[in-house]
Amino acid sequence: MQGRLEDGVVHLPGDARQRFYDSRGYGRPTGGNDLDVAPVEAAHLLSRGDIDSVDGMGLRDLLAHTGTTLDFVVYKDLRDRGFYLSPAREDWPGVDDPAGADFLVYPRGKGPWDGDVEYRVRVVGERQPIPVDSLGDVAEQSSAARRTESGGVVLAIVDEDGDLTYFDTEGYAPEGTASEDLPVDLDADLLSDRVLVSTGVDRLYQGGFFGQRLYGRNADSGPLQLSLLEAASLARQGALDIDSDAVVERGREVEGDRFDRRLAVYTALREVGTVPKSGFKFGSDFRVYTDFETVDDLSHSEFLVRVVTPDHTFVPRDLSLDVRLAGGVRKRMVFALTSAKGEIDWLSVSRLTP
């Protein structure tokens, strides 16, 4: 069978609809037995030997002519995994909103005629920047709703060797069990980049995991050193006898406007009952505990948070590093998209095996 490429679509004649759409979910029926397929679908049919050529072109020439090599790598991989999928093109079967995705992947055993979507997949090369706003409405908290309704996508990143890594992106709602019973007006001293507290130490440290003992984590006495974030949050709640504005100003001197964004995220995490602590050892802004009663009963932190701006652009290699590290220590990687006004959307990114 010979295909004909016209206006970005490959036309297949004869019994193409019966052979390729009805039985295997390729393309878009045009009426009768003819079928239109996207170039990447035609490339896959060429690779299988199901069609002979497209305008005389074999697989290599078609990929070069249409610039669909990366798409082909992902398309073939998903087909090999047992999925039917459609290029996200307007008027293609099952495609209502193609924005933000390259393929709609249907649940195993289903196809474009069923209307159910398992994944919205976006193809990315390892050097291609990924604007965070291209990942859909991260305010949505249901990954299923994001994939099928609000435009959330699975990233299929193709590295320079042609290997594939899939990342699931979904909205996230932090939630924990910690409750705060804070003291009032504890004496505190603002130092260079932290605050020192000498009274009420046990209540802050044991009951809320604020700060770290100055004499070391195994000490059971002595002053408490608080980060500027912890101190600013506690001072705003009246727990410290120190000017919160002075603490915030010191934080801005130390790390610029980013301090305000990190403080907004820290405050939000505390408000929903989680306990955020420094994520420095994991290369992030915070490590976060969701199940907390006292320091003596402390379990492992459940997720890592990196604070970024709402217009952040991901670099695939850096994203892979963050997610790989989080997965390696059995934690979820969460990005807090934080505006200058302190408005926060939460985005979770994790490895996915389709």
Short structural description:
The chain has helices spanning 16-22, 39-48, 59-66, 69-80, 143-150, 201-208, 228-236, 244-255, 258-271, 316-328, and strands spanning 2-6, 9-12, 28-29, 35-37, 53-54, 85-87, 103-105, 119-125, 130-131, 154-158, 164-171, 186-190, 194-197, 212-213, 224-227, 240-241, 275-278, 286-289, 303-308, 313-314, 332-338, 344-352. The protein has 354 residues and is α+β, with helices and mostly antiparallel strands. The protein has a 10-stranded mixed sheet, sandwiched between helices.
Write up this protein.
It is a single chain. This protein has 354 residues and is of the alpha+beta class. The longest helix is centred in the C-terminal third of the chain and has 14 residues, at 258-271. Mean pLDDT is 91; it is low at 139-151. A 10-stranded mixed sheet has the order 6-7-8-10-11-22-21-19-18-17, with helices on both faces. The chain has helices spanning 16-22, 39-48, 59-66, 69-80, 143-150, 201-208, 228-236, 244-255, 258-271, 316-328, and strands spanning 2-6, 9-12, 28-29, 35-37, 53-54, 85-87, 103-105, 119-125, 130-131, 154-158, 164-171, 186-190, 194-197, 212-213, 224-227, 240-241, 275-278, 286-289, 303-308, 313-314, 332-338, 344-352. Helix 7 (228-236) packs antiparallel against helix 8 (244-255) and helix 7 (228-236) crosses helix 9. A hairpin with a 2-residue loop joins strand 1 and strand 2 (9-12).
